[in-house]
């Protein structure tokens, strides 16, 4: 079995023009670990977020003496501490409240009174974060990764100076240093985030009370998710977006249905709208907006404004220029296919390099990077990284959109199947959404899959696996799917792509 897996892996790499010849390594794979980061390491990682901590654990598992440096004092980075994890906790809690208030009665469950206990809801979120960060520390100990708390910056391509929380400075040496410092909230000109009335996604996770009116600047993943949280809890939510569409990267057909669904949840949208001024001197916030192409100005009022206009690579204070590391015009570190920078021995992964700014992408970067360092083979195909919007319903996708295929001049077929025709979805009364599959017209190779439904983020991985192994729509259609399940909609959409579905 192991030999078969090895042969399959080599064949996979060869199809992508990646050499299967052994790579030369500059160290022996020993299991000797030092108790101090001051001794020379095989690998040093600056940043303990999803990319950094996963890289550290994988490096240690490969027998490399490894140190991870993290300034926050808690592992997991933005994702675990003030991003992916706490937002999902609030999305789930707010959904439970909304279901109890508006849906339970339809299922014969009568509740006399439903109230929001916001402090308890936030406490549950904080407990989840705390337990998970401690879990990563446990994994570090298990795998013998040395953990140094503090702010790291380069002294040389093989030395990192770390200012520790107690004000002392230590030097961590390494043969290979990986930058995994992630990203930070992108600011907007003329808008100062105070995390009280004008908040970033971080502040939106810890509001002390439910705002009557919330304005979200930016109709991307984060803005729509946080808008959903507070909208379910009772806020009047208005989303202001400069572009003509919400989530511009999303497949157009799915996007339209998604926006209609959010509008049914009373989320309002002002598209093609530019923010030109803000006044937070009073009790609330006044936002001055105008059409993106120019025109009459309008003043919007809110209790809280969430600035969610994207993220920027965080490399401040690393002294990259001191050692000559090249970056692009927006500050991303430039790397080759092995995640190496232009400076020998210095690497970068995750949000600080070009590619999707996603935690799971950073994790794959981290694994692949240390595999290369260890003389093995790593590979991440950014065209096959799934993306998920964790609203209700969720929207998940992988591969190309229909707009991209048209732009590229690719001939394709489309297969769609609505959850209204799925027996499990109808049985549990969550039949909103659809599955859409795009496949090459000649070969039937799957090029893109897009799902809008509850738990779409879980359903998408069948498609991710199929796309990574160049499967056809017929391959999925001929796989037996358990009945009744939501996953049957994927099978039916696949059948609709190469032939005809059964249940529609």
From TrEMBL:
<dbReference type="InterPro" id="IPR023753">
    <property type="entry name" value="FAD/NAD-binding_dom"/>
</dbReference>
<keyword id="KW-1015">Disulfide bond</keyword>
<dbReference type="InterPro" id="IPR006258">
    <property type="entry name" value="Lipoamide_DH"/>
</dbReference>
<dbReference type="InterPro" id="IPR012999">
    <property type="entry name" value="Pyr_OxRdtase_I_AS"/>
</dbReference>
<keyword id="KW-0676">Redox-active center</keyword>
<keyword id="KW-0285">Flavoprotein</keyword>
<dbReference type="InterPro" id="IPR050151">
    <property type="entry name" value="Class-I_Pyr_Nuc-Dis_Oxidored"/>
</dbReference>
<comment type="similarity">
    <text>Belongs to the class-I pyridine nucleotide-disulfide oxidoreductase family.</text>
</comment>
<keyword id="KW-0560">Oxidoreductase</keyword>
<feature type="domain" description="FAD/NAD(P)-binding">
    <location>
        <begin position="42"/>
        <end position="366"/>
    </location>
</feature>
<dbReference type="Pfam" id="PF02852">
    <property type="entry name" value="Pyr_redox_dim"/>
</dbReference>
<dbReference type="InterPro" id="IPR004099">
    <property type="entry name" value="Pyr_nucl-diS_OxRdtase_dimer"/>
</dbReference>
<keyword id="KW-0520">NAD</keyword>
<dbReference type="InterPro" id="IPR001100">
    <property type="entry name" value="Pyr_nuc-diS_OxRdtase"/>
</dbReference>
<dbReference type="InterPro" id="IPR036188">
    <property type="entry name" value="FAD/NAD-bd_sf"/>
</dbReference>
<feature type="domain" description="Pyridine nucleotide-disulphide oxidoreductase dimerisation">
    <location>
        <begin position="385"/>
        <end position="494"/>
    </location>
</feature>
<dbReference type="InterPro" id="IPR016156">
    <property type="entry name" value="FAD/NAD-linked_Rdtase_dimer_sf"/>
</dbReference>
<keyword id="KW-0274">FAD</keyword>
<dbReference type="Pfam" id="PF07992">
    <property type="entry name" value="Pyr_redox_2"/>
</dbReference>
<protein>
    <recommendedName>
        <fullName>Dihydrolipoyl dehydrogenase</fullName>
        <ecNumber>1.8.1.4</ecNumber>
    </recommendedName>
</protein>
């Amino acid at each position: 079995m192991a030999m078969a897996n090895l042969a399959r892996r080599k064949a996979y790499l060869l199809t992508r023009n990646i050499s299967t010849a052994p790579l030369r390594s500059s160290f022996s794979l020993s299991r000797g670990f030092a108790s101090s980061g001051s001794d020379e390491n095989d690998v040093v990682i600056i940043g303990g977020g999803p990319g950094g901590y996963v890289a550290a654990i994988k490096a240690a598992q490969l027998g490399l003496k490894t140190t991870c440096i993290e300034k926050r004092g808690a592992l997991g980075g933005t994702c675990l501490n003030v991003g992916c994890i706490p937002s999902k906790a609030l999305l789930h809690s707010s959904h439970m409240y909304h279901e109890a208030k508006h849906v339970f009665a339809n299922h014969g469950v009568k509740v006399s009174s439903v109230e929001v206990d916001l402090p308890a809801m936030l406490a549950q979120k904080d407990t989840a974060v705390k337990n998970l960060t401690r879990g990563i520390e446990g994994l570090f100990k298990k795998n013998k990764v040395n953990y140094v708390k503090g702010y790291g910056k380069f002294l040389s391509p093989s030395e990192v100076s770390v200012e520790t929380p107690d004000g002392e400075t230590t030097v961590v040496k390494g043969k290979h240093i990986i930058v995994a410092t992630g990203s930070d909230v992108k600011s907007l000109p003329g808008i100062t985030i105070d995390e009280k009335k004008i908040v970033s996604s971080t502040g939106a996770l810890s509001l002390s009370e439910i705002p009557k009116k919330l304005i979200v600047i930016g109709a991307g993943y984060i803005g729509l998710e946080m808008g959903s949280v507070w909208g379910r809890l009772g806020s009047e939510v208005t989303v202001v977006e400069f572009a003509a569409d919400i989530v511009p990267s999303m497949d157009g057909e799915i996007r339209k249905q998604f926006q209609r669904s959010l509008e049914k949840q009373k989320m309002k949208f002002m598209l093609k709208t530019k923010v030109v001024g803000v006044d937070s001197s009073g009790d609330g916030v006044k936002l001055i907006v105008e059409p993106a192409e120019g025109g009459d100005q309008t003043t919007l009022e809110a209790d809280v404004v969430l600035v969610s206009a994207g993220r920027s690579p965080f490399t401040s204070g690393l002294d990259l220029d001191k050692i000559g590391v090249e970056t692009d015009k927006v500050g991303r570190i430039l790397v080759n296919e092995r995640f190496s920078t232009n400076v020998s021995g210095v690497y970068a992964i995750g949000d600080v390099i070009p590619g999707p700014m996603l935690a799971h992408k950073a994790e794959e970067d981290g694994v692949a990077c240390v595999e290369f360092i260890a003389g093995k083979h790593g590979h991440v195909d950014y065209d096959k990284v799934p993306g998920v919007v964790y609203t209700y319903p969720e929207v998940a996708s992988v591969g190309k959109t229909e707009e991209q295929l048209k732009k590229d001049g690719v001939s394709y077929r489309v297969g769609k199947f609505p959850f209204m025709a799925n027996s499990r979805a109808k049985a549990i009364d969550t039949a909103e959404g659809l599955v859409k599959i795009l496949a090459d017209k000649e070969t039937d190779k799957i090029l893109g899959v897009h799902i809008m439904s509850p738990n779409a983020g879980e359903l998408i991985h069948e498609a991710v696996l199929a796309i990574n192994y160049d499967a056809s729509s017929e391959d999925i259609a001929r796989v037996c799917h358990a009945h009744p399940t939501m996953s049957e909609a994927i099978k039916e959409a696949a059948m609709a792509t190469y032939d005809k579905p059964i249940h529609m």
